[in-house]
Amino acid sequence: MAKIAIIGEEAKVLGFGLAGAIVLPAEGPEAVLAAWRSLGEDVAIVVLTSRAARTLAGRTATWPLTAVMPP
Fold this sequence. Notes:
Elements: E1 3-8, H1 10-13, E2 22-25, H2 29-37, E3 43-48, H3 50-56, E4 65-68
Parallel strand pairs: 1-2, 1-3, 3-4
């Protein structure tokens, strides 16, 4: 079964764990990149905070599907 992962600042992502998402808190650019690289092949959707999305701009492939949270 495909999974959903959430990457970004801890205060903005922790609650998604209650819904069963894989939560990857990442406060800085290096942590965001490490979280992205750690995604398993079973992750189909990644939700990013706006800060995490800026860090990954131009570095993501078309899979997994990504969505950005509003600021």
